[in-house]
Amino acid sequence: MNETSSVTPSVSGGTIAAWRILLRGAGVLLVLFVFCFWAAKGYNRGWSQNRVPVKHLDPVTEIEFTTYEKRFVPGVDYLVGGSLIGAMLFSATFLGNRRLKIG
Amino acid sequence: MTYVPTALRSIAFAGFTIISAIAAPKSFDLKDPKGVNAIQFKLDSILEPIVGTANNITGAVSFDPAAIPATSGKVTVAASSIVVPNAKMNEHLLSAAWVDAATHPEISFAFTALSDVKSVGPNKWTASANGQFSLKGVTKDISVPVTLSYLSGQYGSRLGKPEMGGDLLVVRGEFSIARGDYGIKPGEKEENVAPVIQLTFALVGGAPKS
Question: In this complex, do A58 and B36 lie within 8 Å of one another by their Cβ atoms?
Fold first, then answer.
């Protein structure tokens, strides 16, 4: 009887530990991904852009005019938002009772 | 009584007609076939300035290179053509709290004459355009410093058809307005978005050869 009761909680404790590791890993990966994506798209320190202004020059009138190219450029809001979600995932694993009482 | 031969009178009349035709003001259409006309706006804000453009421009300028102060015209901008790089910010700008493009679809500036006209080069002048600026249903008298460049015979060349002839008029300018004066969040959120909007424009008007 004593053997049975000591085995069941240890399986449950192992499952919880795996979820903690997964969540922490996901949190770290998310932060890394968000940072790398933001950096790869040009370190935009302004707001995210859904379209990018492109300047042109009309040769006859010498008027500089702008057209917009549809592409996403992540900004500081994207970096901060993504990092916060990653940090929340990571820190969620520290919530609750981490120690399992066996037996 | 002085006798003037008939032939001489005919020549004088023809000359007068030609001069009158040349001197008559031309209407320059601001609906540019190449779509370069735009008004750029800038508001200082947290993180970075909000910079955007509005490029659906219509209107006309009546211009005579021999009578610059008599230049008049009206520029109309479709409010819905306001574009900023951030889509969410764009929605806010067009909403009722800001420009209210649905209720007030047009932003316009109408002027009837130019003052302080100065020649700054061949076919180039600076002046002040005094007129009425309308935004979000509010109209106010303002004075806009402008630079005019008259490009004689360039209309057709610009379109790749020099045989068409015609002239171009380029109008550039820069001015500022207080957003609160036009009912755009007066006195609100000034710590986040500047109360002054800086507007810059470069417009070309075309007058095909008639």
Answer: yes
**Cβ within 8 Å of residue A58, ≥6 positions away:** A64, A65, B34, B36, B158, B204
B51 touches B200 (CB < 8 A): no
pTM as predicted: 0.80
Shortest Cα–Cα distance, A51 to chain B (Å):
5
Can you read off the two tokens belonging to residue B63? 């211009």
Whether residue B170 lies within 8 A of chain A, CB to CB, comes out as: yes
- CB count in 10 Å sphere of residue B114: 24
> In this prediction, does ipTM exceed 0.90?
no
Q: What is the CA radius of gyration of chain B?
A: 21
Nearest residue, CB atoms, B158 vs list A47, A60, A75? A60
| Tens-place pLDDT, residues B49-69 | 999 999 999 999 999 999 999
Angle subtended by helix axes A76-92 and A2-40, to nearest 10:
170
Find the residue in A nearest to B151 (Cα): A61
> Is the Cβ pair A76, B157 closer than 8 Å?
no
